[in-house]
Specification:
By secondary structure, the chain is an alpha+beta fold. The protein is 17% helix and 47% strand. It has 1 helix and 8 strands; from the N terminus they run αββββββββ. Strand 5 and strand 6 form a beta hairpin. The longest helix has 22 residues.
Length: 130
């Protein structure tokens, strides 16, 4: 009985995630701020999704313009981000992250590279259940 519940719950979660991606196809979400005492809102954040509903770009803004930009890359039709490129306020590469995943879809490793392509650090993910 418990196994059947877990399988059904897993299917429902998968359908819910698929539904969220469906709603985000080709979507651009912009967040605007309005400071107290002013009448002109300013752009705070922008998130862009591709035709498959995957996040492909996120830009954070400051009063002077772009503060930071992150580009997300995927292999084929996968929903797992394989590479993330972070840019600074001058749109220069700040850091590159590459990801490996376990068979169950959880992150296995993250490689952090400097802008010149040299490996800076590696992060390993460990999962344990209580």
């Amino acid at each position: 009985m418990l196994l059947v519940f877990c399988l059904v719950a897993g299917c429902l979660c998968a359908q819910e995630n698929t539904g969220k991606r469906e709603r985000k196809k080709n979507l651009v979400v912009k967040e605007w701020n309005l400071k107290s005492g002013t009448k002109t809102p300013y752009l705070d954040n922008s998130v862009t999704y591709d035709e498959q509903g995957r996040k492909i770009e996120e830009i954070e803004y400051a009063s002077y313009g772009q503060k930071e930009r992150v580009v997300y890359e995927y292999e084929g039709t996968s929903t797992k981000c394989t590479r993330q490129i972070e840019y600074d306020s001058k749109n220069h590469v700040k850091r590159i992250k590459k990801f490996e995943y376990n068979d169950d879809g959880t992150r296995k490793k993250q490689y952090n590279y400097k802008p010149d392509g040299k490996l800076e650090s590696t992060k390993t993910f460990e999962y344990s259940y209580k």
